[in-house]
Each structure stands twice: as structure tokens, then as C-alpha cells.
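Can't paste images in this forum, so I'm doing it all in text. The chain is below; anyone willing to post the predicted C-alpha cells underneath?
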Amino acid sequence: MLRYATVLLLCCCLLGQYAVAEPVKGEKGPQPQPAQQGQAAPSDGGLSLSVTGGTRRLRDNVRAHLSPLPTNPAERASFLFTYQDKAQEALQALGYYQGTLNPTIERKEGNWSLSLELEPGEPMRYQFVTVLLEGEARQDPAFINKLNNLKIQPGDVLNHGDYESLKTSLITLGLIRGYFDGEMVQNRLELDRDNNIANLVLLYDSGRRYGLGEVTFWASELNPDVLESMVPFEPGTPYHSDEIGKLTNSLFSSGYFQDVKVLPHPEQAEDGLVPVEVGIAPPPRHSLQLGFGFATDTQFRISTIWRTPVVNRYGHSQETRGELSQVNPKLSFDYRIPLSHPLNDQLQFQALVGREEFGDIDSNQYQAQIGRKQVSENGWTRSLYLRALLEDWSQDTLDRRAHYAMPGISFTHTRRAGPPLDPRTGFRQTYQFEHGDSALGSSQRITRFRAQLRAVFTPYRKHRIASRLDFGVNVINDDELVDLAPSLRFFAGGDQSIRGFGYQTLGPTRTVEDDDGNQTTISVGGRYLLVGSLEYQYYWRDKWRFATFVDSGNAFDINESEAIDVVTSVGVGAHWISPIGPIRLDVGFGVSEPDTPWRIHVTIGAEL
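Text version of the structure:
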């Protein structure tokens, strides 16, 4: 009976296309009515739709199957012939084969509306779910794990989308893991509509698992040994698309290439090994980069970087960097020679000339260093080096000079999750040990240790915690401390230390007298360093966050006549997560000091 009513309405619709009512002069013609809540508003000659009953997921699926709605009489006529079948398909796709539709079609002043009331009934559920494997995948841990954790289980409501996803995921997993001959041998979904039950049977025959074969490089002038050192697998390694991704990342990260394309060829496999072809494009011979920056510690800064990513066919590279600022201008040179791996094992030659302010001391530094940097499989970076340092400075109205030859070792490890410029969680740790001795050419005998820890975590979506800890110690004779170069002493204060105070202005002080007899207290740095910080951040917009913090600690000496002077500051800040990294505006107040000094700090860059 319902079908006949639909046909009758369709005939009226078709006839109505040729009957155009002229409005009486001075009166308004029929006006489209705004859609009611839950309806789609019709255009002139179209139709509005309202769906009620059932779950929200069922209603949304029905609307999706009936979209787009008709916008003219001809489309409306076709829609009224097919909407019931499409709505039933929407219910059945989610396992409701016993559902009924209660439609109501109305026409008011030329506006058509269709109201569907859903009575979904009981859903169809799986009675048996059988997924079988043939071939080498039967012994593959990844496939075994997938079968042990199927998203479809007996008793679940039938969902055709989940069923199709399961089939696709088995085939996709096979391709990812090198089962290029895999196929779905059996693919049955048996439906018993009378008893409202479904049975699923899938049989995936993976065939053999292929291995990775030889890697061929095209259009590269680099020595073959350098190229092969960047291949993360040996021929015969079981195929996995992750290995292809690792190779791509290794080549890009080396800086040797402007473009990289890695193409495995399963169709050319021989003896079960898939050859891999790599097409690469060389980078520009030289590149020059100009940059501008600002931070409260270093003021305005202009930097230039000259890079030569490939000096010769052996993969040597160089980077020359110049920075001009009011506080610490410097010029540095870094020359890298790949050893066993261009990224993970390098011989480095470095040189630096610069000037830096340490409290009230201006220091000129001349430095050269040779070392070996290695990155382990677990992400730790180890550097073994020999550093030569010549430093000039003025202190106590006297010009001083010291020189050092210090072997050292450092370890660094960083892990993070989330966007690199604003990670949700992460932990960075750096440890450095150096030793200088007169027998090696140093002005004093000194042993140094420095540890720097940085951590961030986000316990809740809008709430973030950032913390850091800096610790340092110099082992040196008391009578030689005054002659220690400023860059080897410890100072506190500044953007990355204790906010509310100037850059490297905190630490042990000394009273000096100038030529006119005036006495001045200056900061001369300490033997030890201990500074900690805890900061709470709240995201009040996606790219904006409010911060409040406390910083505490100092650089100090330990002796019987002086107590440790612990300096503490508190403050607030506003941070904008910009495309180049967080830009932080913080205001710190030195609450531990009698006059409560305060200072504005502007910094750019992530905490890790």
C-alpha cells in the first residue's frame, strides 16, 4: 500500500511541474519556509528531510545514504522512487535487517518534506567468526597477533564496514610485510535473516614472504661505500615497508640529497628477493642562509650560515656560522667526515672565535676541537673529543689569560611525542665530563662535570608541565679558582636559568676598587651550579597558552665563611605557538631579594 502511495505522489509531482501559479498582483507568492530543527532546508522545487527514531549513528547513516537531497522537481521524483531502498541499505549496513520505515510526505505551499521514523528492530549478530591463514603468515607474529585481537567477535552486531575493513587490513598487512602473492581464497558472509544471525568465514593465503634485495643508486657522485652505509638492512632481510621508510629518512637526513625516491620492485623479484631502486637528486653545491632573532639574553641577533653539504665524493661536509649580537658575537666552523655512517658516526673538526659576557666580565674565546660523534641504536649520542681553549678577560682591573687542553666525553638523549615545536611529552638529558691538566698543556688542573635535564608532559589536554634542572661542579684548587677562565665557571640568571635576573649575573661576587678608589661589587662566577625550574602552562586557545613558573638556585662556592645564597623567582607568561616555534613572553620577579627585582624575558624555541 505504501508503494502505491509513493507512485501516486510521484504522479502529482510530475504533473505539478507544468502548473505554475501566478501570484495575485500586490500579493506575495509562496515563500520557502525555514527548516525545522533536525531537517535539511529545501531549495526551490526540492525536498527537506527529517529522520527520527533509532540511534544517532543509524540516523546519520540514513541521512548519508539519502544525500544529496533533490533540488528540483525532476530530482525529487527520482528520489521518491528510491529513498526507501536506500534507507533500508543504510540500516542493513549497520546490521539492522528487521528495521521498518514510517515515512510521512507533506506538501505545504509548494514545499515538500519527508519525515522518516525509524524502527530498527533487533540487530543481526555474529554467531561464528572464522579467520584462517595459509602460507608463511601462519608463523608470522604480526598475523598471529592480529588474529588474537580481531575487532569482530561472536556476539557482535554485524557491521558491513567493519567486515570490509577486516578483509582490507589482512591484505594490507600482507603487502606491508612482503607477502606479495597473498590473496583472499575464501570470503563469505552468510546471513540468516530468519534467525537474525551472521557467520563470517575468511581464508587468507599469504604465500611466501619476500626479502629485501640489493639496493641500486642512480645519479649520485658519492662513493658507493658512503651510500651503502646508509642502507639500514642487509640483503635477505625479511621485507617490511618500515625498512623502506628508514632508508628514505636516512638518505634525506644526511643532507647529501635534495630529493630522494625509493622504489621497491616486487615484480622483479628473483629468488624471493625484492630489488630496491633509489633515485636521488644532488643538493645545491653551496647554500647561504640569513636569519634574524631576538632574545632578552642575547638581544637582537643577525646570523648567517654557509653550508657545503657535499665537499667531495667521500661525503665530507662543512658549515660556517656567523652570529652578530651585542652580547655574544661569534664565528664558528664545523667540518664533518663520515666514518661508518654519515649521520651516526662522524669525525668532527670545529673552531670558534667569540666574545661573551659573564656577569661583569667580558671574555674573548678562541677554541678548536676534534672529536668523534656516534649515535647508538637506542638514540643516545656520544661524543669523545679533545678541546683546546684560549681565553682572555679582565678581572680586578687586571688583564688575564688562560689556556687549556681538555679531553672530554658527553652523552645526550632526547625523546618526545607530539609536534616537534610543541611536544606533548618529552625528556632531554645531557651529561658532560672534561678534564684539564698542566701535563696536557692547561693553565690549571681542573675536572668539570655538567648535567642538564629538560622534561615536559601533558597530563590533560589543556594542561602542560615543563621542568628543568641544571647541575655543575668544578674540581679545582682554591688558590687557582681566581685564575679559572670565565667560560669554565658557572653563572646563573637569564631566560634559560633564573628569570627575573639578567643574563649570567648571579653567582659569587667580589668587591673591587677602581683607580679612583671607588668600590664595586661584581659577579665572578662559582665552582658549583644548581638551578631548577617548574612551570605550569594552560592552553586557553589552540595556539596560545598562559604560564606561571618558579625558578630557584644559584651558582655558588662552598666554604665555611659563606652560606649558599639561594635565589628564587616567580612569574607569569604568555606563549604563542608560532610556525617557527613557541614565542614566549615571561615576566619574572626575584622574590628572594629585598628589592624584588623584575625582568621581562622574550625567547623563541621549544623547551626540548
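Residues 2-18+38-119 form a domain with the Ubiquitin-like (UB roll) fold (CATH 3.10.20.310). The chain has a mean pLDDT of 89.
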